[in-house]
Amino acid sequence: MEIITSEQLISTGYRFLFETIKKKGIGPVLDFVQDMEKLPKKTTLLRQTILGEENDLIKLKRKHNDMFEYLREHKGELYFNLPIEKVSEMLVNVANNDNLLELYLENARKLEELKVSLIEFCTFFDYWYQCDIYRNDNGQIIVIDKRYNDGEITKVEDEVFQKAYCNYSCISYMVNTTNMSFSFQAQNNEHGYQYRYITIKDFGFDASKLPTEEEIQSYEIPKQLVKK
């Protein structure tokens, strides 16, 4: 089966962000992002334009024209849906700790390599996760929605069939999230379309614990959830 993944990858945007810091320095990039964070709402920008007042977007371009030119040159790598507030927080962390940049960049590159299309940030709490499974009439898995994480799985329930008419079942499991830094989700459907998402505390996670491309592509239940 041909595997098809998303071409719109937010991981590309973060990789480009950290590469830009490495090239331009943290100071100019942090200043630019913080100024973007201060931009008024679109209604204010519209009012400024209509009334002939000095537009804050124009002031931003004037102050950071070099950055604007650089971004235009690399427009194929831009991803404008990065959460500005979260990016600003990360850049402050990088500014306070020079050692973080290489780690953040390497992890962003790894997520791009794994075709991660969505990255969300959160603080993890212990709770039940679920692996969703659909089989054909022969019992073969044709659709699976599964997660991989670096937390400690403390309890795995038996697979429960919930909808006989569509051969749907699920496996619930409890995760101790004390030392957990990521939760990687793979949604693989019957036509070969695969979507990869990840939730992280920040980009300082241990990439060696990420699933491999082979594991992600597989339509098998993750080994951690298979009872012996």
Outline the fold blueprint:
Elements: E1 4-5, H1 10-24, H2 26-37, H3 42-50, H4 56-63, H5 65-73, H6 84-96, H7 100-113, E2 116-121, E3 127-135, E4 141-149, E5 152-156, E6 160-163, E7 168-176, E8 182-188, E9 193-200, H8 213-217
Parallel strand pairs: 1-9, 2-9
Antiparallel strand pairs: 3-4, 3-7, 4-8, 5-7, 6-7, 8-9
Helix pairs in contact: 1-2, 1-7, 2-6, 4-5
Describe this structure in words.
The chain is an alpha+beta fold and 228 residues long. It has eight helices and nine strands. Strands 1, 2, 3, 4, 5, 6, 7, 8 and 9 form a nine-stranded mixed β-sheet that branches. Strand 8 and strand 9 form a beta hairpin. It is elongated and about 65 Å long. It starts with a strand and ends in an 11-residue tail after the last helix.
Residue share in helix = 25-40%
The major pleated sheet works out as: 9 strands, mixed
Number of DSSP-assigned strands: 9
Mean pLDDT: 90
Radius of gyration: 21 Å
The H/E string reads: EHHHHHHHEEEEEEEEH
Weakly predicted, low-confidence segments: none
Count of helix runs: 8
Helix/strand class: alpha+beta
Core attributes:
alpha+beta, elongated, nine-stranded mixed beta sheet, 228 residues
Short summary of the structure?
By secondary structure, this protein is α+β, with helices and mostly antiparallel strands.
